[in-house]
Amino acid sequence: MLTELHPGRARALLFDWDGTLVDSQEANYRAMEAALATQGMRLDQDWFDARTGLSSADLIHELLAGTGTRLTVPVDDLVAARDRHFLVNADRIRVHAPVAEVALACHGTLPLAVASGGARLIIETTIRHLSLERLFTTLVTRDEVDRGKPAPDIFLRAAEALRTAPADCLVYEDSDEGIEAAHAAGMPVIDVRPVTRPRG
């Protein structure tokens, strides 16, 4: 296990999914791009990459607010289309090995949760594909809370499910929104980006 990812004295570990445990950025971008194209909308990848911590619905709402575009279908329909595009390519998703190694090393010693702004169906499908489901005590997604990241709701729900005080949980994250959510939840956080996206 890499020293910079060591959980120290944490009593429970909460892992974001996309970008943290798995490398799914390109697949997520392509899926969202395809869904938005049905509305004649273009998706700038740099804009998308800067908002990796947002749920699909929140990202679409932010894009609409910034462009003044009006949809011909409900946002939920676009999210469902995005999810269908993503699932077609779910077999292309790969783990971020250094972060997965933490989960593997701590499994059976500490309670572990996936706490993600993604959709439950998407995460359950990719967890099974990658044979990681046995590692985690619980899974909390954007579907189970009122507010997504950067609000703390997802992390607080995960801590509650693990019966661990927020201050005793350690969060692994890869986005500014996720780090802000961890801080708002009163949880220490490790930014995995220096490991998963090393500068060259």
What does this molecule look like?
The protein is α/β, with parallel strands linked by helices. It contains nine helices and seven strands; from the N terminus they run E-E-H-H-H-H-E-H-E-H-E-H-E-H-E-H. It folds into two domains: 3-24 and 94-196, 3-Layer(aba) Sandwich (Rossmann fold), CATH 3.40.50.1000; 25-90, DNA polymerase, domain 1 (Orthogonal Bundle). The relative contact order is 0.21.
Largest sheet: 5 strands, parallel
Total of DSSP H or I helical runs spanning 4+ residues: 9
Query: Major sheet: order of its strands?
Result: 5-4-1-6-7
Distance between the termini: 22 Å
Number of domains: 2
- Low-pLDDT parts are none
Give the C-level CATH assignment of the largest domain.
Answer: Alpha Beta
Give me the secondary-structure category: alpha/beta
**Radius of gyration from CA coordinates:** 16 Å
- Give helix and strand order, one letter per element, not per position: EEHHHHEHEHEHEHEH
Count the beta strands: 7
CATH superfamily of the largest domain: HAD superfamily/HAD-like
Shape: globular
Percent range of helical residues? 40-55%
**Which CATH architecture of the largest domain is right?**
3-Layer(aba) Sandwich
What oligomerization state is this entry in?
single chain
